Amino acid sequence: MNYEDIRISKKDRVATITIDRPKVLNAIRHQTMLEIQDALRSDIIKDDSILVVVLTGAGDKAFISGGDISIMNQGSGYIETVYEVPNGQAICSEIENFPKPVIARVNGLALGGGTEVALSCDIRIASSNAKMGLPEIRLGIIPGYGGTQRLPRLVGTGKAKELIMTGDHISAEEAYRIGMVNQVVAPEELDAAVDKMAEKLASKGAFALYMAKTAINNGIQTDLKTGLALEAMCFGLVMGSEDKTEGMTAFLEKRKAAFKGR
């Protein structure tokens, strides 16, 4: 696929997907989501040298400012209901369940679909000038890329209802306070903070990271008994891995482990 809306770069075991629509503050359309999906499926998943993914927006004003309203306003409801919204939800779920850790580098506005894409990532690191929120209610609609489902799971039902039903924007500091983001840093420190987190994750065993992510993502959707059974299954899989042998041997030999991701 030839990309119109995104750019991909790779450096030091990290792949960065940049939403590159600065003229509309990186607002996303369905094409944007399809390109993100293709980058993950056709490139990054197949590149064993890449251990971590960073998702961000071009420039310093916006991560993703939301959906492209000029396109959304043309919708009648039918196509969106039977195709575009379910497909967008599925792509967010692919981000959420991608085998490699995904970091959202929230470098500015992250509204509507921007917040929803960020919520699909494993770790969210925000610039102090970022704004987040789900303002769809102001347009007479509701979130459609998973916001009504992921936000309450992250911050609780009461706060999620407040944000979704008022459409209020919140600061990066408030997002941190309620648990929407993991870190808030000054704009000039954002790259360093993201790089530090990416390197920290890349130094771990890739298979163990995937199993931890699998246990958390699937376990949180079910009851505790089922979740514990899932954890035990994932634990059994990592105990049979080469990385487990390397990690424990390195610990006993007092050296840094050299994980292979298997």
Summarize, please.
This protein has eleven helices and ten strands.
What keyword list fits this structure?
262 residues, alpha/beta, 2-enoyl-CoA Hydratase, Chain A, domain 1, Lyase 2-enoyl-coa Hydratase, Chain  A, domain 2, 6-stranded mixed β-sheet, 4-stranded mixed β-sheet, 11 helices, globular
Give your account of this protein's structure.
This protein has 262 residues and is an alpha/beta fold. It folds into 2 domains: 6-202, 2-enoyl-CoA Hydratase, Chain A, domain 1; 206-252, Orthogonal Bundle (Lyase 2-enoyl-coa Hydratase, Chain  A, domain 2). Helix content is 48%, strand content 16%. It contains 11 helices and 10 strands. The chain has helices at 30-43, 69-72, 78-96, 113-120, 147-155, 157-166, 172-178, 190-202, 206-219, 224-239, 242-252, and strands spanning 6-11, 14-19, 52-57, 62-64, 102-106, 109-111, 123-127, 131-133, 169-171, 183-185. It has a 6-stranded mixed sheet, with helices on both faces. A 4-stranded mixed sheet has the order 4-6-8-9. Helix 1 links the parallel strand 2 (14-19) and strand 3. It starts with 5 loop residues before the first strand and ends in a 10-residue tail after the last helix. 38% of the residues are buried. The model has no long low-confidence stretch (mean pLDDT 94).
